[in-house]
TrEMBL record:
<dbReference type="Pfam" id="PF02452">
    <property type="entry name" value="PemK_toxin"/>
</dbReference>
<dbReference type="GO" id="GO:0004521">
    <property type="term" value="F:RNA endonuclease activity"/>
</dbReference>
<dbReference type="GO" id="GO:0006402">
    <property type="term" value="P:mRNA catabolic process"/>
</dbReference>
<dbReference type="GO" id="GO:0003677">
    <property type="term" value="F:DNA binding"/>
</dbReference>
<protein>
    <recommendedName>
        <fullName>mRNA interferase</fullName>
    </recommendedName>
</protein>
<dbReference type="InterPro" id="IPR011067">
    <property type="entry name" value="Plasmid_toxin/cell-grow_inhib"/>
</dbReference>
<dbReference type="GO" id="GO:0016075">
    <property type="term" value="P:rRNA catabolic process"/>
</dbReference>
<dbReference type="InterPro" id="IPR003477">
    <property type="entry name" value="PemK-like"/>
</dbReference>
Length: 114
């Protein structure tokens, strides 16, 4: 069976941070599993170790989802990326359902739903 990224998992991804500058950074998969399985891309929220509070940032503690440092999910930067930008390996882990609910709320704030 072919594996695919699952909602709530954290992967290291190649995300462009500046023009012509690619940076490997962790990102949380937020798209639905059926989409993740069938589509060639996924929807992610990038993570940062810059712990600046914001209504659209959610704190992930060290250890959660395999993170080696506390990080902020920057929900205002939600992005769709091709699956080939995922770096597979031991970095991937999964966050808890309660934390995923916080992420969902922050995304809704970021897009003006609440």
């Amino acid at each position: 069976m072919i594996e695919y990224p699952k909602r709530g998992e954290i992967y290291l991804v190649n995300l462009p941070s500046k023009p012509k500058d690619i940076k490997n950074r962790p990102a949380l998969v937020v798209s639905l599993d059926i989409r993740n399985k069938l589509a060639s891309d996924i929807i992610v929220v990038p993570l940062s170790t810059n712990l600046r509070p914001s209504p659209t940032h959610v704190l992930l503690q060290e250890g959660e989802g395999g993170l080696s440092n506390a990080s902020m999910a920057k929900c205002e930067q939600i992005s769709t990326i091709d699956k080939h930008l995922l770096i597979r390996g031991p970095f991937a882990g999964k966050i808890r359902k309660g934390k995923m609910k916080e992420i969902e709320k922050a995304i809704m704030i970021a897009i003006g739903v609440i």
